[in-house]
Amino acid sequence: YTLADITGTCYYWQQFWTYPVVNSRSLIAELISAVTGLDIDEAEATKIARRVVNLVRAYNLREGMTRADDMVPQIAFQRSDAGGGYGTYNAAQFRTTLDRAAFEKRIDKFYEIKGWTSAGVPTRETLAGLDLTDVADEMAKRGIPIS
Fold first, then answer.
1. pLDDT, tens digit, for every residue of 119-132?
2. Which of 23, 38, 132, 140 is the most exposed place for a label (fewest CB within 10 A)?
3. Of 35, 14, 36, which Cα lies nearest the Cα of 24?
4. pTM of the predicted model, to two decimals?
5. 6 CB neighbour count, 10 Å cutoff
């Protein structure tokens, strides 16, 4: 989805049935190459997207975001058996309840996949691999605990 964001390709175009599907990094890389004249392959497109994701995360951390902000609304962890609902169906019967501990484990796994610490901070190694050592240095200078 990051590639869709940075190329202006609509999310719906990536999966919408009416149009040809643009849902592969290699195809998006070909589109970037065709439009810009740059020689971008799938690996480079993936690296660009990962750089964007990590830059956005670094920016949000700088602005005070923490792991606590990577949370769904608390109501998702609460089950309501109350009647009522919307329209002609009972909303409570369609609601699922998330297990908080399982959700926390999923966040941990997500961070691990991204190359971030358990606090949700990109590691110096991750940033260096994306040619973003200047971002790692700036985060450290600002007191953001980067490993």
1. 999 999 999 999 99
2. 38
3. 14
4. 0.77
5. 15
